[in-house]
Amino acid sequence: MKFPTLKDELVRTPERDATVWRPPSRAEIERLRKKYPAGTRIELIEMSDSQAPPAGTLGTCLAVDDMGDLIMKWDNGCGLNLIPNVDDFRIVKEASENG
Questions:
Q1: Cα(66)–Cα(63) distance, rounded to whole angstroms?
Q2: Is 70 exposed, middle or buried (0-12, 13-18, 19+ CB in 10 A)?
Q3: 1, 51 contact by CB (below 8 A)
Q4: Which of 11, 22, 26, 33 is most buried as measured by Cβ atoms within 10 A of its Cβ?
Q5: What is the rounded distance in angstroms from the CA atom of residue 78 to the CA atom of residue 22?
Q6: Is the CATH code 2.60.20 the one for domain 26-93?
Q7: Sign of CA dihedral 34, 40, 41, 47
């Protein structure tokens, strides 16, 4: 079951009371790209996925895609992306301007 997050808006229609997924706005994507620029080091706290790296795994954000997911390169070789407001993680080192 998928739970709505900040990037998922609840949209109610007169015909039915249903949750409809809406992709994040351009402004939301730009905000994420500024918050998580390429090179940002991240520690995974928790991810609800059977193939997730273990808690405490460190990785590097390569980019933020057009859906707002963080494209990750985990230190243990895993390539699973992070979903802000769904997965639990923290920045351990911000990307430097000089790489």
A1: 10
A2: buried
A3: no
A4: 33
A5: 28
A6: no
A7: positive
Q: Do the beta carbons of residue 64 and residue 71 sit within 8 Å?
A: yes
- The fraction of the chain above a pLDDT of 70, given in percent, is 76
Six token digits for residue 75: 């230190």
Structure pTM? 0.74
The sheet with strand 41-46 has its strands ordered as: 70-74, 58-64, 41-46, 88-93
**Residue positions counted in the chain:** 99
DSSP assignments along the chain, one per residue: -PPP-TTS-----SS-------PPPHHHHHHHHHHS-TT-EEEEEE---TTPPPTT-EEEEEEE-TTSPEEEEETTS--PPB-TTTSEEEEEEPPPTT-
User: What are residue 10's phi and psi, to 5 degrees?
Assistant: -85, 125
Rounded CA separation 37/94 (Å)? 8
